Amino acid sequence: MNRPLRGLRPRLIVAFVLVAAVATTATGALTLREARTGILRQSQDAVIHQLRTRVSQQAPALRYPPARADLRAFADGIAEADGRWRVLAEYRDLGAGDRLDELTPEIRESVSDSRATVFQRVRADGRTSLLVGMSVVFTDRSTTASGVRVFLSVPQTVEQRSVDALVTGVERAMLGALVLAVALALFAARGVLVPVRALRQATRRIAEGRLDTRLAVHGSDELADLSHTFNETAAALEASVAELREMEARARRFTADVSHELRTPLAAMSAVTDVLDEDAARLDPDTATAVRLISEETGRLASLVDDLMEISRFDAGAAAVHRDVIDLAESIRRTLAARGWTDAVEAQLPYPVRADVDPRRVDVVVANLVGNALRHGERPVSVRLASDGREAVIEVRDSGPGIAGDVLPYVFDRFFKSDSARTRSEGSGLGLAITAENVRAHGGSVHAANHPAGGAVFTVALPLTHESPPPEPEQP
C-alpha cells in the first residue's frame, strides 16, 4: 500500500507538474486540432478546385447523352491531373473509370440531389482517402444538369505524414514543457522550503529551551513576515520565561529562607512541648488538653517545615543521593517496624532484592506511601516487592474507595489535596511530591492507579544497578 505524499517538497513538485501537464496537454491538443484541420482543409480545397477546373476543361468534349466510351475518356481526362487520382464517371446506369469500393451510397445520393460539390473522408484498409463528388453542368443560356456524375478518390498519405510529424512535434514540445516545469518546481520548492526548514529548526530549538533562537529575515514577502513574527514571538517568550524563572527563583529562596528561619524557634518550642507533655498528667483537664493540642500542632508544623526544606533542596539541585547496596525487603520491614505498622500492613516480601539505592530516601518513599494509604484508604493495606533482575517494583495498595479519575493526574503535585475522593488530609500536601522527587533522584518512576478489585495502588519502579538473585520459591 503506497503511503501518501507527506512532505511539502514532493507536493509542490507534483502540483507544478500537474498544472504544467494539464496546460501543456490542453494547448497541444488545441494546437494539433487546429493544425490538422488547416492541413486537411488546405488539401481538400486544393483538390476540389483542381477537380472543378479539370471537369470544366473536359466537359465541352463530352457527347450528350454519353456512351460508356465517352464516360471512360472523360474520367481518364480528369485523372490525368494527378497520378494519385482515381476517377469514376457515371451517367444513369452507365459507369466508367476506376472502381471506388470506398464510395458510399450517401455520397451518390448527395451528388444526385444537389449541384454542390460533396466531399467526405473515409478510412479503409488502414488508409485515409478524400472522396469528392459533383454533378457535371452544361452551361448555355441556362444552367442545366447533364446527369453526369464524377467521383474522385484521393489518398491522404502526404497529409497524414504531415499530421504525424505535427503530433511528434507536439509530443516533444510537451515533454520539454514538463521537464521545464519540473525544473521550475524544484527551484520554486527550494525558495519556499528553505525558509520553512529554517523555521522548523528554529521551532525545535525553542522547544529544546534555546529561547535566544532567531531567524534571518530576507525580502518582504509572506515568508519574511512569518520569520519576523516568529522573532517577535520568540523575544516575547524569552522575556516571559526569564521573568517566570526569576519569580520562581525568588519563591524558592523565600520558601527555603522561611523554612530555615523557622527551624530554630520550632526546635525550642518542641523542647518546651516535650516538657509540658511529661507534666500534662498533673495538670487540670482543660490545661492538659490545651497542652496536648499545642504539642500536636507544633509537631505538625515541624513536619511541614522539614518537608519544605526537603522540597527546597530538590528545587536547588542540592538533594544528594548517598547510595549503598542494601536488601530492599529488609529495608521495607524496618520502615514498617520503626513506625509501628507491622500489624497494620500486610508485607509480601518473598525474597531478598539487593539494590544500589539511598537507604534514607527509600525509607521516606515507603513511609510516605504506606502512611498515605493508612490515612486516606481503608485497611487492609499491603506492600509487595518484586523484581525481574533489571528493576525492583514496590507496590502499595489499600482497600479504600480508590482515587477519582479527575484527581489521578494531580496526586503527585505539591500541596494538592482532594476533598471529594478521600478523607481530608491533615498533612502538608507535600508527602507524595517528595516521594516522586526521591524516586526520580534514583532514576525510577512512580504512578498511581485504581486496582480493578478496589482501592488505590501506588507503584514504584527502581532500576537495579546491583544484580539481584533470581526469585526464590515461596514457602508454603
Automatic annotation (TrEMBL):
Its EC number is 2.7.13.3. It catalyses: ATP + protein L-histidine = ADP + protein N-phospho-L-histidine. InterPro entries: HAMP_dom, HATPase_C_sf, HATPase_dom, His_kinase_dom, HisK_dim/P_dom, HisK_dim/P_sf, Sig_transdc_His_kin-like_C, TCS_sensor_his_kinase. Its main location: membrane. The keyword Repeat does not apply. Residues 190-242 form the HAMP domain. Keywords: ATP-binding, Cell membrane, Kinase, Membrane, Nucleotide-binding, Phosphoprotein, Transferase, Transmembrane, Transmembrane helix, Two-component regulatory system. GO terms for cellular component: plasma membrane. It is a multi-pass membrane protein. Residues 257-466 form the Histidine kinase domain. SMART domains: HAMP, HATPase_c, HisKA. This is histidine kinase.
